[in-house]
Design goal:
Layout: E1 15-22, E2 27-34, E3 48-52, E4 65-70, E5 76-82, E6 85-91, E7 97-101, E8 114-119, E9 125-129, E10 134-138, E11 144-149, E12 170-174, E13 181-185, E14 188-193, E15 200-205, E16 210-215, E17 222-228, E18 239-242, E19 248-251, E20 257-261, E21 267-272, H1 282-302, H2 304-312, H3 316-325, E22 335-340, E23 346-350, H4 361-370, E24 379-387, E25 393-402, E26 405-406, E27 411-417, E28 423-429
Parallel strand pairs: 2-21
Antiparallel strand pairs: 1-2, 3-28, 4-5, 5-6, 6-7, 8-9, 9-10, 10-11, 12-13, 13-16, 14-15, 16-17, 18-19, 19-20, 20-21, 22-23, 23-24, 24-25, 26-27, 27-28
Length: 435
């Protein structure tokens, strides 16, 4: 934990300025759209539809929610990780259990090293299993359909995990319009092999900050780049989400610039709010150091694997000293998170005035060093801008958390933790005007 990973935090609407720029592929005419600087506030009181995890029914007792997503029928697919094992719950739009499946093992449909599950729009579930070096596809009732090998892995081959490109640390999301996955690679790995001793040296660094489209049509998955950050060598956040027609929305700088690709892969439109750059000052940097110290103290007080992880790597005093020594290395990002709805609307969470959003740094530390998956919590709070991909600013939801999942008919799901760190999933419905 030497350097905490930071969150990436009057023109009339729709005024377009033509500009020529190089995209991550062919040269295209980028349409730069200046959005209003003044917020138009929206109602944030979304009615509750149902909740899971209150302990009323045995099946809804959750341990660590690592992934969550809706299919086109409004069923919610939840990945629950407990003591190294993943199980998948599918819940219908009334909050009733449809099926729960998944168990450790070596056979068909068993999980060797799986932590996340992804809901496909047609009701199937995809589980990325690092132990089997394959994606496992399950039908709507939890029955195994088939395996799809990671790219570059031959049938019957089990190379070391670090040799497999698809196993690089990455964030995955579903393209709900065509059923493929989008994967953002978060760490670049390079290998140097001594030709005499055959010993190798593996190095990891920032980059390449690309988004790949992962297709699961054949026996082996295929990957193709669909978006690339303007600067692959920096360590700033890179947020992305799918849009209809094969497009992708992403934010890759500390400025408020949301790029929307065209179907050919170039950047066709850039949505801009011309806020002044935000730099760390003594107040915001001090507030973040205090936030880190509080996170450490809470982890120690709560005990369990989080406290054990701190003890394994130097103990509380070392972690607190590192928090006190933290210094900012870049500007405060304007965009801290980015998602899209089933209607194709962009939701952009902005970094609030204090300079950072709530992030589980201890959980991220465990994931990086111990391969323990971070439990989800709704990201924020902060103002959330609601924008169409065409550049129409619909308004801003004040002081809100970004939903962990968006579903059809305005459904959204939030993951929260109670005082005992037991997760609860709350499903709400967003009004039609901002879906």
């Amino acid at each position: 934990m030497s350097r905490p990973i930071l969150p990436a935090p009057t023109c009339p609407t729709g005024v377009a300025l033509a500009a020529l720029a190089l995209a991550g592929g062919p040269t295209t005419a980028q349409q730069v759209i200046e959005l209003p600087l003044e917020d138009r506030l929206l109602d944030s009181d979304f009615p509750e539809v149902y909740r899971i995890g209150d302990g009323v029914r045995d099946w809804e007792l959750l341990t660590r929610v690592t992934s969550i997503g809706f299919d086109a029928q409004g069923n919610l697919h939840i990945g629950d990780w407990s003591s190294g094992d993943l199980s998948v719950l599918v819940v219908d739009p009334r909050g009733e259990l449809v099926v729960r499946f998944g168990q450790p093992g070596e056979g068909p449909g068993d999980f060797r090293d799986a932590t996340h599950a992804f809901a496909l729009p047609d009701g199937r579930t995809v589980v990325a299993d690092k132990g089997h070096l394959a994606y496992q596809l399950f039908d709507a009732r939890g029955g195994l359909e088939r395996w799809v090998r990671y790219p570059g892995v031959s049938e019957g081959e089990t190379p070391p995990l670090f040799y497999v490109r698809s196993a690089d640390p990455r964030d995955r999301k579903v393209d709900r319009w065509d059923g493929s996955l989008l994967a953002r690679v978060t760490i670049a790995r390079t290998f140097e092999v001594d030709s005499t001793t055959r010993e190798f040296d593996m190095k990891a660094g920032s980059g390449p900050r690309t988004v790949l489209r992962v297709r699961l049509d054949g026996d082996e998955a295929s990957e193709a780049e669909v978006a690339r950050a303007s600067r692959p060598d920096v360590e700033e956040e890179f947020h992305f989400a799918a849009l209809p027609d094969g497009r992708v929305a992403y934010s890759d700088t500390t400025a408020y610039r949301i790029k929307v690709t065209d179907p050919a892969g170039g950047v066709g439109r850039v949505l801009v709010r011309s806020f002044a750059p935000r730099n760390w000052d003594d107040r915001t940097a001090g507030a973040f150091r205090a936030y880190l110290r509080t996170s450490i103290d809470e982890a120690i007080a709560g005990g369990g694997d989080r406290a054990e992880s701190i003890g394994m790597f130097g103990g509380p005093s070392v972690f607190r000293q590192q928090a006190d020594d933290w210094e900012p290395e870049s500007a405060i990002p304007h965009v801290a998170s980015l998602e899209t709805t089933w209607d194709g609307t962009i939701w952009a969470l902005r970094t609030p005035a204090r300079g950072f959003i709530d992030v589980d740094h201890i959980g991220m530390f465990q994931t990086a060093l111990l391969s323990t998956p971070t439990g989800l919590t709704a990201t924020g709070p902060g103002p959330i801008d609601v924008i169409t991909p065409e550049g129409e600013y619909l308004g801003t939801i004040p002081d809100a958390r970004m939903p962990n999942a968006f579903g059809p008919d305005g459904l959204v799901a939030y993951v929260g933790l109670d005082e005992f760190d037991v997760p609860t999933v709350v499903v709400r419905r967003v009004p039609e005007g901002i879906r």
